Amino acid sequence: MKILVIGSGGREHALTWKLRESQHMEGILCAPGNAGIAQQADCSPVDVSCPKELLQLALDLKADLTVVGPEAPLVAGVVDEFEKAGAGIIGPTKAAARLEGSKIFAKQFMQRHQIPTARFTVAEDFESGVQALRGFTPPIVVKADGLAAGKGVIIAQSLEDAERALDDFMRQKVLGAAGEHVVIEECLSGEEMSFIVLADGRGILPLAPTQDHKRVFDHDEGPNTGGMGAFSDDGILGQAQRGDILRLIVRPTLEGLTAEGMSYRGFLYCGLMLTQEGPKVLEFNVRLGDPETQPIMMRLRSDLTDLLLATQAGQLSAMDARWSPNPAVCIVLASGGYPGKFEPGKVITGHDTAEATGGVKVFHAATKLVDNQLITNGGRVLGVTAVGENLSSAVERAYSAVSKIQFEGMHFRRDIGAKALQRMLQAPEREG
């Protein structure tokens, strides 16, 4: 069969890499792809924000199934277009994609269905937002309502900082229409983690647990990004915690969507805070995370195509996923200045040497080939991903591979997985 992957980042590179292993695979297609993906898939230029163009491409390429990587085409209604044409696709409808496309919709949905989350209020304009801030004690979280590529969340340490965030979003329009309305919420404390499942409207298949590192600098300092690294390790969650997340969050979310006429099919990402009161939702994404997908795919032992076909057929409840017991770690290498302004076009060297290391895969996120040279083409450039017998060895292997790669302005966090390693030293055995 032929599978078309929509997107151009590290997540999509990891998907095409894993799908290529499938026994069912006749051909892997990707649109628009990047220089790394082009080594494993036939790439086609396309405007991913245009559902009709994506559908026409899938029909032209005779794709049996399409997998959507980024959120923008899902929020734009690409699944609705495919379903009207009878074309196979994995992802939620436009209505269900509002879980990610609108922070306001997501928070009000959680409120309606008693899904645990932070206390919040909605601000429709700057003046009401300033007034609402008085009901919260710093630190205060200010979230742009719309899609903002991971840059629409500000954790303000003072009322003045919170007002500045409101001004940036609502009056200065630094995020365009995404910041016209905002959510103001209490700042939860605890441990963050990503819990991603596949759902087909009835069945639920949890993926390996992961932790992302959102802030740009070490020790969780600096502005939020799309993600500077992630790791996957079974020790992140005990069995009792997994059960609580499924019972309190995942099932009520999917059942609530169904009750509101939005049966959900595809990947559902629950960004959680593990608080003293139990797990609470920070955000929903309606697709796989990036960079979480990279370590997840490194650990997946099942045929990904089998899981996707079962999702499409509504037979996910009969499936089980097999996982490597070995942890995996992804280190994101970013352009100088990211998540702010950066200059593309920097020559990348050492990526082949890094990937020659055993247990390492270098996933391309924003690269292209010019005159046979690999160059940077965006903010997050590469995701150096490694597996190891334990988390410590996976981290060491990943950073050893990173040391072989260079491009002008390259920066990365040097503490991916460090808090988890410290926690393991303090408490070697976790619950469950």
Describe what this molecule looks like in 3D:
- By secondary structure, this protein is α+β, with helices and mostly antiparallel strands.
- The protein has helices spanning 10-19, 51-61, 71-75, 78-85, 98-101, 103-112, 126-133, 159-171, 239-259, 293-299, 304-313, 351-355, 391-402, 418-426; strands spanning 2-7, 27-32, 42-43, 65-68, 89-90, 120-123, 140-144, 153-156, 182-186, 191-200, 204-206, 210-212, 215-217, 221-224, 229-232, 265-275, 278-285, 328-334, 360-364, 367-370, 373-376, 380-387.
- It has a five-stranded parallel β-sheet with strand order 3-2-1-4-5, with helices on both faces. A five-stranded antiparallel β-sheet has the order 12-15-18-22-19.
- Strand 10 and strand 11 (204-206) form a beta hairpin.
- The radius of gyration is 21 Å and the shape is globular.
Indicate the low-confidence ranges by residue numbers: none
Number of helices: 14
Main sheet specs: 5 strands, parallel
Helix percent band = 25-40%
Record field, number of beta strands: 22
Overall geometry comes to globular
Overall radius of gyration: 21 Å
What is the terminal-to-terminal distance?
40 Å
Derived structural class: alpha+beta
- The neighbouring-strand order within the major sheet is 3-2-1-4-5
| Beta-strand fraction estimate | 25-35%
Q: Mean of residue pLDDT?
A: 95
